[in-house]
Structure formats: structure tokens, C-alpha cells
Amino acid sequence: MPASPSTARAINDRFALRLLQREGPLTAGQLKQLTGLSRPTVADLVERLIASGLIEVAGESGEQRRGPNAKLYGIVADRAYLAALDVRTEGVAVLVSDLLGRVLAEASVPIGDDTGTGPAVEQAVSLVERAAKEAGADRLHTVGIGAPGLIDPASGELRDSTGLPAWHRRLMAALQEKFPEARVGVENETNLAALAEQRDGAARDRETFVLLWLGLGIGAAVVLDGTLRRGVSGGAGEIGFMPVPGTAGLPSATDCDGGFHSVAGAAAVSALAAEHGVTAVPEGPEPQAAALVREAVRRSATTPEAARFLDTLADRVALGAAAVVSVLDPGCVVLAGEVGRAGAGALAARVQHRLNRMSPLATEVRASTLGGGAVLRGALLTARDRAQDELFSPSQG
Predict the structure, then answer these.
(1) Exposure on the CB side of residue 124, measured as CA atoms within 13 A
(2) What's the whole-number mean pLDDT along residues 242-257?
(3) Fold of 5-75
């Protein structure tokens, strides 16, 4: 059954907006060429989108031609402002961008363990307010939050988890109260890092891969056929609870001690470094475990103890990676999180070498290329996609 004229217009408008978002300002002739639409249809489309406030004249093409240069049309970037947050146990980082994802302001604030729930929430909300003001954002359209822990698939809220500060769960409601017109959403930090690596980082060429988060906690994000998989309860990738050899016991429903976390989490990495005589001084807010791995990578070519530490760490990481690979066959594993990033290519190469011996399934192991900004980047991408989905929807056409 053919689409109605109004539906066809909405589809064409959305297609054109996506092209402008991806390619930047385009002339009507370029839109005609890229969309395959007729010249009158493109002219009507441009008129509608200008009237709706979604696009504007962004300049001239500068082509050498007889008569006036063709007008360039671009998305109105300040039609919506977005905020992205990376919420950690020790603090919050935030950035504010326009609808095109251009970062206009960035800020962060540490929040100590002894800070009460109310003051912690107030500090985080005030940080977002200041960043929005610096960006010139009179109001926020969408706020994307990345946080450790499980997201309830029914409510979309952060579930109560042991080991996480109480202010984490309060923050989403507080932001919604402070910015009542904004669409506020939260996503697991590992999932956001995976989305960012898929869009802009180490997994750009992969439709299927697993991101292994190695940091204070342990987790994984699963992307299959281009889609992030969260599981029935939102817990897909909670591999810190996965039983592995070499632990003193088994994990429980409330405690991951005895699971993969016990051999590859930050505390275990620090203890392993001490066994091998590896020491390091953290750079700025860098976690101690990450500093130790970074220093071991630097010294591994000349110091046998540092090389043995990395080898043993790779043995442990490969245990968890091999279990994931044997079930999902992702073809690619990205090492992320503070420890994964610090290990860089040196740790990734060691893990891949061990996987090649342990599994018949060919798997490439890569290091994250986005550094410490992967979660913020993923939160921004998610917020931008959500805002564009709404603003570019047929109801706007």
C-alpha cells in the first residue's frame, strides 16, 4: 500500500535532515542528488523545514557559475541544547552541546565519599546549571546520564545496587525537577562506552563486538548486529559475577567476590602489581590500578618484573574474555575502562595471544581509542539521537 502524501513528506523531511546532520550544509541541488527527489519536491521540503525552524540558510556554495551562488542549508544547531553526564563514585563530569553535538561547555566536580546524599546531588545539579549557563543554553532539551550499575528496563531508572552511592539514584529525579522541560535518561556507563566506540572509536568497522570494561568494577557491553543488547533485566554483561578459576570461592546474588571481579578488578590489579614489585604514582585523578598498568607498559621492554605483571594480568583478563567469546563469538573484544585504556595495545596484544590459544573462534582484541571521555561521548551521542528523533519526527514535518 503506497504511503499517503503526508507520510511521504515526513519520510522525505527526515531523510533530508539526517543528510544535513551527517554531511553538513548542502545546497538544494546537492539535496536533490543525494535524496533522488525531484527539484520541486526538494524545494517544497526546504520551505517546510525552514518554516518549522529546523534548517536555515547557512551561507553560499561558492561555486563558479553564472548568476548568484546557490544557498547552503544547514540544521539550526541552537534549536536544542543537550547535556551529557559521566557519573562516577568519586565525582561527576558534564558537557553541554548544541543539536549537532558541538561541545560548548565542559566541567567536572569531585564528590568525596563522606559527602551526604543531599549535598552530593546539589553539587552535581549545580555543575550542570553552570555548564548550561556557560554554553548559553537557556534551557536543555535532553540530558543523557552515564552511571555504573543496572538500569531497570521497565522504569528506565538506575536500580539500587550495593557499593554505589545513594546520590546516584537521586540525581536523575533532581535533574528532572531542575530542568522540567528536559528529557532525562540514564544508561549504564559500559553500554555508553560501547556505543561511543562503535560510532567513533575502536569498533567503527564492527557490527558485532564486546566491550570489556576493566576498572574499579568489571563489566561488559554486548553489541550484536549493530544493536546494543541489555538483557531481560538490564543485566547483560555483568561478568564481574562470572565464576572463574583462581578465586577462593564463588560469587553470590549480592556480592561478586569470587567471580571475575576478584581477579581482574582494580583491587586485584593493585595487589598483583605489589606481588611483582611494580609501583607508580597516579597522574591527577587517575586510579592507582590504572597508574600501575600504565607504568608497567612503559617499563615492560626493559624490566622483567613489569613484563611478568602484564603477562599475568593478561592471563586473568583472557579468562573472562574467553568465556564471553565462547558464548557470543563476537569476533572483536575492545578493552576499555581505566585499566583497559592504561594497558593500551600492549595489554590487548597479550590478551589476544592467549585467546588464540584458548579458543578456536578467531577474535581480534583492540584497545579503546576514546580515552577517558568514552562514557561522556556515549551519553552525548545518545542524547543527540534522542533529541533528533523527536525533533525530526513526522509530527514536526
Answers:
(1) 31
(2) 90
(3) Arc Repressor Mutant, subunit A (1.10.10)
